[in-house]
Amino acid sequence: MTGGRTAVAVTPHVLASDAAIATIGAGGTAVDGAVAANAVLGVVAPETCGPGGDLFALVHVDGDAQPRALNASGRAGTGTTPDALATLEEIPIDHPAAITVPGAVDGWLALLDRFGNLDLEAVLAPAIELAEAGFPVSPELARALARLADSLVDQPSSDELYPEGRPPAAGANLRRPRLAATLRRIAAEGRAGFYAGPVAAGIVEAAEGIVTFDDLARPQAEWVEPIAADLFGLRCWTLPPNSQGYLPPAPLWVFSHLDPPRDPHDPRYHHLLVEAYRAVAAERDAVVADPDRAPLAPDDLLDPGRLAAFARRVRRDRVVVHPSPRPTPGGTAYLCVWDGRGMGVSYIQSNYHGIGARRSAGGTGVWLHDRGAGFVLTPGHPNRWTPGRRPLHTLSPTLWTEGDRLRLLLGTRGGDHQPQLLAQVAAHLLHAGLDLEAAQAAPRWVLDRFGPRSPSSLRYESRLDEAVVDGLVELGHTLSPAAAWMEGWGPVSTIRIAEDAQGAADPRVSTAAASVG
In whole angstroms, what separates CA 115 from the centre of its chain? Predict the structure, then answer.
């Protein structure tokens, strides 16, 4: 754990955390540091994120009544129609319709334009240097590239990930000159360096014309109104749809109104948290969609009267059956940065399923996300694949304030697991009173499925107390053990700000790091 009255950055990779701190030390803001860290992650952890994906961010400046919220998620292309996809039951992750316009680079530019002190060249310099000189392959990246080799090796940008046609070993030095050249182009040309020229041509080709040059010419980043709920004496801010951002605070509101015990060793603590999540998440797919199509106003998602109705459905003595959304596991990078001068950023960026659609934008080193797989194909559904529409997004960062002061930055990767993991860590910190390191280390559980007429079925880290497991079984939950430390159930990144700032990295991922400077 790190702390002090200086800058703190917590990211999934030590090289990204260090880049954020170095960028702030060179005169940058927390936003400069966050974008620098994101660019580095796209180089060293392409199995999670990169410029071919989307991002969401919350930025808070002390003294402001609320944070600024950025939706930099891309839209479906206009090069086909829903009827042309009618033969599909769902959109496969490697289908060209799964490729939506990448929003991350537009997000970088919007964030830096509003909150940055440094120019784009300086912010991207750490990522460019690592891509050119090389970096040690992490165990996580080595495993991901070995697992995905058959689906990636024939792509035009695969040679820099598979030197000599083979997955690199953990610890090997890996260079990414193709991506370095693209980042240099973005640094020199701004938006045109990505959304025009060779990257744009590669995107159009990879998407088989479903994403057009006109689609790429349309900026994707948009400043939106955040939504919030009052929890544990703080105000939890998040993103409105098309993000599922309401899902971390909504179950926590329900949980906090069920008079839960404060001891995480009590089975009822976990039972009420599980049931609160299941009650709220059951309707996610019906209410999260493109903002122009979502059936509820964003603030209604966290309306206390509406949440109280969910609380009334929860039974303290047994499991209740709820309908459920379709599970959508993903690959994502969440990071948070505090610059020690009053600005904090909760920032999440993703390729969705690991390296996304398994398609590169030509030989540019950019791998394209598959966020379009978050659409459905049901006629009349608010989240139906439609040209120009944004899909349901699992990305759900949070930012917590007390009055006009920032108190907590909290987020994680994990697709459908994201809000479950965040709810657990937030409850540990703010209800049970654990410190950052203990909250990070506490055993976690996830719900992969909680479908109609089925019982609650939990997988749990095998370190969970046997008494908790037995108690949950008695209450009607079905449990199955997983590994003691589940790499994919994180990394959660968090920074807590009081008189000083403290950050704690997640022990589940070997590269995760909290850096201070």
Answer: 21
Count of residues making up the chain: 517
Catalogue the active-site residues. Answer: 332
> Per residue in 408-426, pLDDT tens?
999 998 878 899 999 999 9
Tell me, yes or no, whether 478 lies in a domain.
yes
Identify whether residues 206 and 248 lie together within a single domain: no
Ranked by mean pLDDT, the top range of 2-6, 31-35, 329-333 is 31-35
* Structural domain of 152: 2-221+332-374
**How far apart are the C-alpha atoms of 493 and 512, rounded to whole Å?**
8
Measured distance CA(436)–CA(424) in Å, rounded: 12
Q: HSE of 82 in the Cβ direction (CA atoms, 13 Å)? A: 14
Between CA 335 and CA 165 the distance in angstroms is: 32
Q: Are residues 61 and 119 in the same domain?
A: yes
Question: What's the pLDDT score for residue 325?
Answer: 38
Provide mean pLDDT across the span 14-22: 98
Secondary structure class of 359 (helix, strand, coil): coil
pLDDT digits (tens, 9 = 90+) for 166-212: 999 999 999 999 999 999 999 999 999 999 999 999 999 999 999 99
Whether residue 197 sits in one domain with residue 76: yes
How many domains does the chain divide into? Answer: 2
Q: Are the C-beta atoms of residues 222 and 274 closer than 8 Å to each other?
A: no
| Mean pLDDT (whole number) for 299-323 | 89
Q: Do 93 and 196 have their domain in common?
A: yes
What is the dihedral sign for C-alpha 377, 378, 380, 383? negative
Residue 453 has a pLDDT of 56
Tell me the percentage of the chain whose pLDDT exceeds 90. 86
DSSP assignment, residue 55? Answer: E
Instruction: For residue 107, tell me if it sits in a domain.
Output: yes
Separation of alpha carbons 393 and 388, rounded Å:
15
Same domain for 313 and 428, yes or no, is yes
Task: Return the CATH number at 404.
Answer: 3.60.20.40
* 343 shares a domain with 354: yes
Q: Give whole-number Cα distances, 80 to 86, 160, 215, 247, in Å.
A: 11, 32, 12, 32
In a domain, 390, yes or no: no
104: Cβ contacts below 8 Å, ≥ 6 apart: 38, 49, 50, 51, 52, 53, 54, 55, 72, 349
Q: At what angle do helices 177-189 and 30-44 cross, to 10 degrees?
A: 150
Asked if residue 384 belongs to a domain, the reply is no
One domain for residues 348 and 287: no
Q: Are residues 347 and 324 in the same domain?
A: no
